[in-house]
Fold:
Amino acid sequence: MKRERKRIKKKSAAVLASVCMVSLILGTVFSCLYVFGYVSPENSIHVTEKNTVNYRLHYTDSEHFDLSGYFGPSDERSHFLLGYTDYIEILNSYTADFDKKMSVSYDYKAVKTLVIRYMKANGNAENPVVMTKEYPLDASSGQDMTDQLSFTNNLYRVDLRPFQETYLGFVMEESERISVGIQPEQKLLFSAELQIDFIYTLKNSAYKMDETITRGLIIPISDEVYSISFTGTQAVAYDVPERSINMPALPTALSLSAGFILMGVGLAYGLHALFGSDGSFRAEVNKIIRRYNDDVVLTSSSANLDQCERIAVVKFKELLKISINLSKPITCYQDMQTEEALFFILCDGYVYEYKVTRLDR
Structure:
């Protein structure tokens, strides 16, 4: 009867632990969905970005050219003379349109990058880059609640001469390094270009938006005759999934917390009822056997001790002292059904014994 009650108790503990575990998992999933919201692909924000770059190329004073105007991308002229180039004005405009108002963080930077390449690439498709040097041109950042961001008519004046001087200085140093006299044609071993990039980044953590668009120019500065080319993307459109944030009210949050605490307590109790006391019983027995292996003899059959006078000791160390004094071994018998271990010494009709049992028996 007692064994049946223990079996029922153990089965109930297993059921309780399983229910609490499943409840904790489901509760955690639904709470995360409730607290942190959900992503609905049907609700999205449409974003359109335009990053426009244009230029005005001005020549120096010369009898060969009319200086009343400037050259631009719309002119028929596609090639220019580096020696006659005075400066270049670069215009940049950027707009971002959203189909509804949203909080947007933006970062903007304009950079000039001098790129020097080695011209003899041994048959490679592209000449390898041997040096780059970046020069900041402009930068700004901020945050706004809006349905449109706009930065129009940013005008920058760029003089090519300082970059040419840096390029020629590099060629001269390289020539001196290899101990070869500089020759005019040696400049052809390296090419140089000035890259000017306008970079815009939009961010919104609630909508998981982190988008960057770059538009720029490449201006060769190592050849007398050159042309200006555009790089990057001028326009882009995309959809950002909308995330709805549903924060729970205080009573709901407290109820969820209390429910998690109760389920945790139930889970801990169930696991302890399943494994806790049984684990401590086996641990105590195994600890004694390992520590006093030379003093304990294990037996698989129970001894008939009913005719002996039984003397119980409280601690195993007391039994160990008796064993030493009487020069008798300690015998250990474990009954797995009753979950009981008996350490005993048999001597002249007396039995000195120390028992280890489950704590809940």
About this structure: The chain has four helices and 14 strands. The chain has three domains: 1-37+245-286, 39-239, 292-357. Residues 36-41 have pLDDT under 50 and may be disordered. The first strand starts at residue 38 and ends at 59.
